[in-house]
Amino acid sequence: MSAETAKDYTTKELMAAFIANDLEDGLGILVGANLPVPRAGVLLAHLTHGPNMRIIISFTRANLVNEPVLEPFEFITDWRASRWAEAYYIHSDFIDYIKRYGMNEIFFIGGLQFDRYGNSNLIGIGNDYKKLKFRGPGGVGSGDKGAHCKRYYIYTNSHSKRTFVERLDFVTAYGWGEGGRDARKKMGIPGEGPRYVITPLCIMDFEEESKRMRLKSTHPGISVQDVIDNTGFELIVPENVPTTTPPTETQIQVLRNRIDLEGILRRK
Amino acid sequence: MSAETAKDYTTKELMAAFIANDLEDGLGILVGANLPVPRAGVLLAHLTHGPNMRIIISFTRANLVNEPVLEPFEFITDWRASRWAEAYYIHSDFIDYIKRYGMNEIFFIGGLQFDRYGNSNLIGIGNDYKKLKFRGPGGVGSGDKGAHCKRYYIYTNSHSKRTFVERLDFVTAYGWGEGGRDARKKMGIPGEGPRYVITPLCIMDFEEESKRMRLKSTHPGISVQDVIDNTGFELIVPENVPTTTPPTETQIQVLRNRIDLEGILRRK
Amino acid sequence: MPQEMQRKKVVIDETEAAGWIKDGMTIIIGGFITSSHPMAILRRIIKNGVRNLTVIGSASSGLDVDLLIGAGCARKVISPYVAGEAIAPIGPFFRVAAERGEIDVWEIDESMYYCGLRAAAHLLPFMPWRGCVGTSYPEVNPDIKVFRDPINNETLLAVPAIKPDVAILHAAVADPYGNVQHVGTGFGDRAQHLAADKTIVQVEKIVPNEEIRKEPAKTSIVGADALVRAPYGAHPYSSPGFYIEDLEHLKEYVTAANVYAKSGDRGPFDAYLEKYIFGPKDHMEYLERTGIRRLFSLYEY
Amino acid sequence: MPQEMQRKKVVIDETEAAGWIKDGMTIIIGGFITSSHPMAILRRIIKNGVRNLTVIGSASSGLDVDLLIGAGCARKVISPYVAGEAIAPIGPFFRVAAERGEIDVWEIDESMYYCGLRAAAHLLPFMPWRGCVGTSYPEVNPDIKVFRDPINNETLLAVPAIKPDVAILHAAVADPYGNVQHVGTGFGDRAQHLAADKTIVQVEKIVPNEEIRKEPAKTSIVGADALVRAPYGAHPYSSPGFYIEDLEHLKEYVTAANVYAKSGDRGPFDAYLEKYIFGPKDHMEYLERTGIRRLFSLYEY
User: Fold this and answer.
1) In chain D, where does DSSP find H-type helix?
2) Do C109 and C137 touch, CB atoms closer than 8 A?
3) Measured at the alpha carbon of residue B163, what is the angle toward residues B161 and B164, in degrees to the nearest 5?
4) Which domains does chain D have, with CATH numbers?
């Protein structure tokens, strides 16, 4: 095991490591099926420095620290993942879990669109709700999680001017609203809101006062200009933008030997 | 088994039979520990004509039709009664059971005081809530059940001018309020409200229009005047007040051989 | 024991159960995305040509709801999500029907979904909730009201009661008297049952009452109004403890639905309906068409 | 495995657990009337001389709450009922302390009790409820507001959140990491946990994690903040699956309490406190004083 920087890694592995590094022990986190990078990031944190994390998997709560290999599943409902369960998670009761569990959990929130304040939209594209140009799948749990979790990460596989837009057509999850560090407090929303935006190009955070999206680091091979060119609103760009911290050798070992044996994160 | 009138029975057995005769098949009913007469009445209905009743006992749901003998228990929490369980009844979930279960259930509601409209009081006696002359145990679930059950029965072991009073000091369960057949509807309360008042002296019901309490029948050995003398408000007394219908021979057999082997109902 | 002292058995077949569902009713469907949808009954409802349903999906609805839309049964959809994870990021029929205004969507998120069901179970007009304050939900769904709470004057959402006529669920087992037990957590099935006027549950097996009494803590639904014996009844979706999803079938569905969504050609989807829904005379014939080899290939731990 | 990769065990003893409870805090107590109260910890709280507690009992509180009142720990009581069924139709200390204004009672019924806890779990200021509309509750407890709902304009009660600092519960078993399993239904313990800032659970046994994983559906509380190993810890109340009530002890309590309630003579009750609470140095010594013969006489199916 080694804290040295890995010599060989993919951008997806780097993104997973970034996620893992930001997750402290003790959090509760849902591990779903169809976002391999957040899944890997969460499990990496759990296996390397989060022995007291509570993993929500296939509607159970589990601790996977002692499991040698964590097979992925194709669907979130796959009951085969329940073999690790310490407790059931009855989905309809989640509204009763807000205080004791929800507010200690982190989430990954996706979207069809995001704006500069980290608000997101999963309803659809178009000015008229009754005549959408593109109908999305619906907000799922993102609107509530946006308010009722410790903090969340915006995660998208698509960084373009179509996803990062000047103005959302609809807001399904409230990020920083119209901006300002007290935006959420004024609304009475308890959760800390979006912390980072994780895309295939870069990591972004939110400037402390205005809560405008700010470039934090670019992934290897991506320039600041690449990010600007693919973002539909004016991003805050600091003078020096580092490259996203690479994974350590240990992280890569754990990823490849216990979490991602199939190599999904190694596919380009 | 015989539908003939029993030759030998106690008033408590008669009261239990009255209760049983009024309970149709299919109801859900809580069987508690410290009201032997309602307990016996409910189980008698279940065993004689209620094979689809759902008995709530020791926080489980059970069907006891095929059980030869039903031992009583001293406390409602006695887990030994769970041996008949078909399902658990998580107490904190009962507020979620209102529509599907609560509104199909009947209850027995007691009190320190009752008024002519079947309102009841379990808080205490005295004009000033902060300086009660007598503090009661509290309303328990009666206030909610009064609103959220199919119908209920007022049951008391004490029929006196101290319990049946002109005016309640406090209302814990709303019966017919200030009277009138639409009293509950006006308040938006869904349950049918109190149907009968069952005391050691008599059975009372509620006159259809005014919903004032009305003498329905007296128990053997009790005169109409006995009831009037022990009631603190003006009761509606019809011209002819029959004696409460006696139990059948079959009912007495079932009571004594399956429900009340200890003879609690036979004690004077 | 006299006849009248027998407990009433509530087992009926899927044809009779589907017959409960009439044009214009509001149904709520159990399961979650790719698991535990009551497909045997839903297929029969489609076969019956029921129209103008208000379809309340599960908290995350799967392609079960999409199928009802595609088959023309749904006029209004209440769901926080209609899709199939990686198989179908958006339900193909849901998408085009919503875009064209062929269905109304009563837009909510998962928390409001359960708040609405709770309100119905509580016989209350609404339940308050804070999640989604500041979002577009009250604009796109004007039934959701922004209000100030009567205690602290905080800004909250009032989520109206969601009141299904019939809940249609799929579970593992039940005794003939309506005591239902799931394998697994049952997702939101309990909440759906508690909000509905009537509940129909199709199960993999009917078991004796004694089996239920062995583990009463597992009983998830008491007093189902009707039970349907439907082994493999959730197919092509999974049934925890019994079988996993039939990926091949799901892909066949999505492919056919996508042809229509992209080109307007209903041919492949009509063929799908004919093969799996209109053709088979009942659930058993559906399973015969699927084939025993395929069915048991799904029979994994 | 490196030390920092070990899961944290949360097992402490009853002395340390009781030390969490400070003057003026709000505690909520698990169980139901004569079952499953966390007596080992409550006795230690009394021994510590804690004062001015707001004591939230179970939905039907037993003489556990009455004891805390009698011992002078409670300033305010939140409960729909404080009594002991046939043993004590009204809690003797509850009655006299309320009559004399020595305690404030925050009057609610069982439904409002759970509504208040739900509101706390939901981080909401209130929950609406219809039961008890038309009763005196909003008069005797002005924190409960009568209001018109924002959807249908119906008259409802707004029940304010009930927010315990610490939930103190008794259950059957737990693993060292805070996964708790009850025998029996657990009454309102789950709801109490979900509303509280912290949860302490005393259990009959600590079991290996593997035992919990054998039946994960039985896990009733995840993540107890502290566990106390307290065999016979609910005595003199019952613990489902372990022992029934100690009627003799309960009668001893009620007799002593009634002497005070009727005559003002605290002698017998002070002797009770000395014998069972101030005298024994810990829970094991309490059990020794009770005697093994008595303890195992309660050990019935």
Assistant:
1) 14-19, 39-47, 63-70, 92-99, 110-121, 137-140, 189-195, 209-214, 247-263, 267-273, 283-290, 292-297
2) yes
3) 65
4) 3-110+163-296 (3.40.1080.10), 126-160 (no CATH)
Please count the structural domains in chain A. Answer: 1
What is the CATH classification number for the domain harbouring B196? 3.40.1080.10
D136 close contact with B: CB closer than 8 A: yes
In terms of CA atoms, which chain A residue is nearest residue D224?
Answer: A100
Query: Is D124 an 8 Å CB contact of chain C?
Result: yes
Q: Which among C48, C64, C67, C160 is positioned nearest to C112, based on CA atoms?
A: C160
Of B95, B140, B172, the CB nearest to D114: B95
The answer to whether A144 contacts C85, with C-beta atoms less than 8 Å apart, is no
pLDDT at B268 over 80: no
Residue B25, domain member (yes or no): yes
Cβ distance B75 to D85 less than 8 Å, yes or no, reads yes
Give me the residues of chain A with pLDDT under 50, please.
none
Helix (H) or strand (E) holding B7: none
Contact call for residues C100 and C173 (beta carbons, < 8 A): no
> Cβ contacts (< 8 Å) between B101 and chain C: which residues?
222-223
In a domain, B132, yes or no: yes
Neighbouring C-alpha atoms within 13 Å toward the C-beta of A32? 14
Q: How many C-alpha atoms does B84 have within 13 Å on its Cβ side?
A: 20
pLDDT class of C301 with cuts at 50, 70, 90: low
Q: With CB atoms and an 8 Å threshold, state whether B143 touches D131.
A: yes
In chain D, what residues touch B59 (CB-CB under 8 Å)?
Answer: 32, 184-185, 187
Percent of chain B with pLDDT over 90: 96
Query: Is residue A38 within a helix (H) or strand (E), and if so which, with residue range?
Result: helix A36-49
A221 part of a folded domain: yes
User: Which residue type does D201 have?
Assistant: V
Is D150–C160 a contact, with Cβ atoms under 8 angstroms apart?
A: no
Closest CA to B253 of B64, B32, B30, B69: B69
Rounded distance between C-alpha atoms, residue A47 and residue C197, angstroms: 47
DSSP notation for C240-271: TTTB---HHHHHHHHHHHHHHHHH---HHHHH
Say what the pLDDT of residue C3 is: 62
What is d(CA A123, CA A227) in angstroms, rounded to the nearest whole number? 25
Tell me, letter by letter, the H, E, C secondary structure of D17-78. Answer: HHHCCCCCCEEEECCECCECCCHHHHHHHHHCCCCCEEEECCCCECHHHHHHHHCCCEEEEE
Give A123's contacts in chain C (Cβ within 8 Å).
Answer: 107, 136, 140
Q: How many residues does chain D have?
A: 301
pLDDT of res. D105: 98
Q: Is residue B6 part of a domain?
A: no
**Nearest CA-CA distance, residue C16 and chain D, Å:** 34
Cα(A120)–Cα(A134) distance, rounded to whole angstroms? 15
- Predicted ipTM beyond 0.90: yes
**Closest residue in B to C123 (Cα–Cα):** B99
Nearest-CA neighbor of A161 among A231, A233, A236, A237?
Answer: A231
CA distances from D55 to D25, D116, D164 (A): 8, 14, 9
Judge whether D229 is closer than 8 Å to chain A, CB to CB.
Answer: no
pLDDT in tens, D239-298: 999 999 999 999 999 999 999 999 999 999 999 999 999 999 999 999 999 999 999 999
Domain residue limits at B145: 11-266
A29 SS3 class: strand
Integer Cα distance of C229 and C156 in angstroms = 44
| Coil, strand or helix at A90 | coil
Burial class (CB in 10 A: 0-12, 13-18, 19+), C210: exposed
